């Protein structure tokens, strides 16, 4: 009841006050946001200190019913009674603690907009009115950001290429009042020129200047704001970019490379996003032996090239290219012309004025040594048949760094020429150049010059010459003391000619001359051959024992005259004890080696020469293989002596006895020797006769001669052995058989 009465009173008062308008003070403007809280200020401080607030009433618009009241008429303001009309019951509260006091209105709606009046009654002072205009703000929708093509962008835009022009459109719908739409780059305002469509859509189009690499991951924000109470509503995009490679470096560039040496070159590039693709090029050819990787989150790409440069690469352009595959024409390149160091490459040739196939004796010859080298060579060496050449004007050799001059060449200068040169990387030798010098025929040395032929025997004489060209025409001539005869029947092939002779009488033996002629000239000195009557060969002489072991012997003799024909030699080794032929060797040289003989055995060795006409006198030697057992037993006794002193005494006694026996035997022997020496001379004469017989017989005859000879008996009766030579086993050489036999036999 009281409350109602109060209300009525208040309404009247209020109406009168409003109508009079006298008390209305300045109007305060307050903005509120839908759904949020708003505080409407009202000054309730009494004008004088002795006064107090009695009653506070709030009205809205023209309504005469208060929407809120604070009744403090029965106490102080702090304990006053708050009440509100039904519409506001839960949403309002008048706070008297704040200064000024405020009517707090929560969860505001658009309907709350309007004009509010606050009436304050004091106990003593006059009633005070204050007017507050509440405007309700409707927030705009969250801005949408689209690109130039109208595609919506969420958070990250791109990737765009560096340098692209970018258009960003920001739109926001609704809002009351209509919002302002601004573009921000990070925290910097860059565009505030927005417009509104008739459909109440606010938009702002941002033209971003050409994108720079610094714009990578930069945030562009569009802010919509229509009040200064709440925070602006914003949307942001981050810019993603493809970046071009910026730097390119090559480790080891411009340095000379060494031919044939495996080289690694490293190329690194930075600044590309996504990582750059690195390729290596030699001129226009892509190189494949590469390895690549990235570091620093792909900012740096590295590629190593494994490369084996060769001489041919000199001067070629080697380059490394880095490219962002996402950006056209983003490639950057770095390269250089290769400098290749290599060992000298030499090529030897004749001087240009000369034609190789036609150099003749007496011409001047020029050689050129073509050199390809980096670094340049320090010295050049010329060689002829591996011997170094040096300038010798008297010999007609002139060397001037890369050329060699041979003046008036001689046949002896034929052969291999080379030049060689050295640089810090090594030494190399040119191709050998085989210098051919044409010359007239010359007689080949070392030919058989004596031909032996029996009467009516047909014999071929070979004539060999040296000549270049080898197309030789031959001439033959026969010369004896009586006549000179040109021979017309012979056969020739290249540098050899063959003439056939068949002497019938003494006049058909003599000197044969042969000479050749080729395109260069005629042979100056003819080849000489002697056609002599042929016979059996002479016996060997000066035989010596070269080596002697338990199982082998080695002998060497001097050859005798071959009787005008080719000869060979025979050695027979007879075992004197077993009457056995141990070995029978033939040889083209008068040198023999026989092995596989029993040790400590005596042998008779017979050596003779044989040719087509027969055989020579035999030379007979006597020798012995070394005794193997003797050596061993000596060693054994020595060994025993060291172990037993008793044995030593025993051995000494035995040795004494043996010595005594030896002395007796020696005494007997010297007596018998004196008897023998007289017989020996006679035997020697017999022996020579016997060998003369041998010579006239054929080879089998020798065997027959020695059939009757008994080597075992000869041991017992040395006098019966003809021409036997006592070979000392300790002596390595043998003297002439005849001399030795004399000394051996007459000693
Ligand atoms: C809000 O804006 C109003 C007028 O537009 C102004 O009077 C008031 O001072 C502003 N408040 C703030 C906190 O900027
Ligand atoms: C990428 O490379 C560029 C160019 O060298 C450099 O400026 C930049 O700092 C690098 N970025 C990173 C993340 O290393
Ligand atoms: C290195 O680069 C070449 C050429 O671009 C490419 O073919 C190859 O797959 C790359 N290799 C690696 C391991 O990245
Ligand atoms: C020059 O050549 C001549 C004739 O061949 C020779 O006797 C002489 O030793 C050479 N001189 C030198 C310095 O080799
Ligand atoms: C050859 O040597 C002479 C001096 O001996 C020098 O002046 C000249 O340059 C050299 N020629 C070449 C092609 O090296
Ligand atoms: C024949 O030989 C004799 C002496 O051996 C010699 O004096 C003479 O000049 C030679 N005659 C010819 C034509 O070779
Ligand atoms: C015999 O041979 C020796 C060496 O084998 C040699 O020195 C000597 O001259 C030769 N004697 C004869 C006459 O051939
Ligand atoms: C003798 O011959 C033996 C066996 O063939 C060999 O070992 C030795 O070296 C030779 N001695 C000489 C001096 O030739
Ligand atoms: C040894 O050999 C030669 C030729 O081979 C032969 O003529 C000779 O009869 C042989 N001597 C013996 C004793 O058999």
Structure description:
It is a single chain. This protein has 747 residues and is mainly beta. The chain is built from six helices and 53 strands. A hairpin with a 2-residue loop joins β22 and β23. The longest helix is centred in the C-terminal third of the chain and has 52 residues, at 645-696. One 2-acetamido-2-deoxy-beta-D-glucopyranose binds at residues 547, 549, 552. Residues 35-135, 143-238, 245-333, 344-430 form the Ig-like domain. This is Nephrin-like isoform X1. Residues 727-747 are annotated as: Disordered. It is found in: Membrane.
Describe the secondary structure blueprint for this structure.
Layout: H1 2-20, E1 24-33, E2 38-42, E3 53-60, E4 68-71, E5 81-84, E6 92-95, E7 101-105, E8 114-122, E9 128-137, E10 144-147, E11 155-161, E12 166-173, E13 180-185, E14 188-191, E15 195-196, E16 201-208, E17 219-225, E18 233-242, E19 247-251, E20 257-258, E21 263-270, E22 277-282, E23 285-287, E24 290-295, E25 300-307, E26 317-323, E27 332-337, E28 340-350, E29 365-374, E30 379-384, E31 387-389, E32 397-400, E33 403-406, E34 415-423, E35 426-429, E36 433-435, E37 439-443, E38 450-453, E39 459-468, E40 473-479, E41 484-487, E42 490-493, E43 496-501, E44 510-517, E45 527-533, E46 541-548, E47 553-558, E48 567-575, E49 580-587, E50 591-594, E51 602-611, E52 614-615, E53 619-624, H2 628-643, H3 645-696, H4 699-707, H5 711-716, H6 737-746
Parallel strand pairs: 1-9, 11-18, 20-28, 38-45
Antiparallel strand pairs: 2-7, 3-4, 3-8, 4-5, 6-7, 8-9, 10-12, 12-16, 13-14, 13-17, 15-16, 17-18, 19-21, 21-25, 22-23, 22-26, 24-25, 26-27, 28-29, 29-33, 30-31, 30-34, 32-33, 34-35, 34-36, 37-39, 39-43, 40-41, 40-44, 42-43, 44-45, 46-47, 47-50, 48-49, 48-51, 51-52, 51-53
The structure holds 2-acetamido-2-deoxy-beta-D-glucopyranose (9 copies).
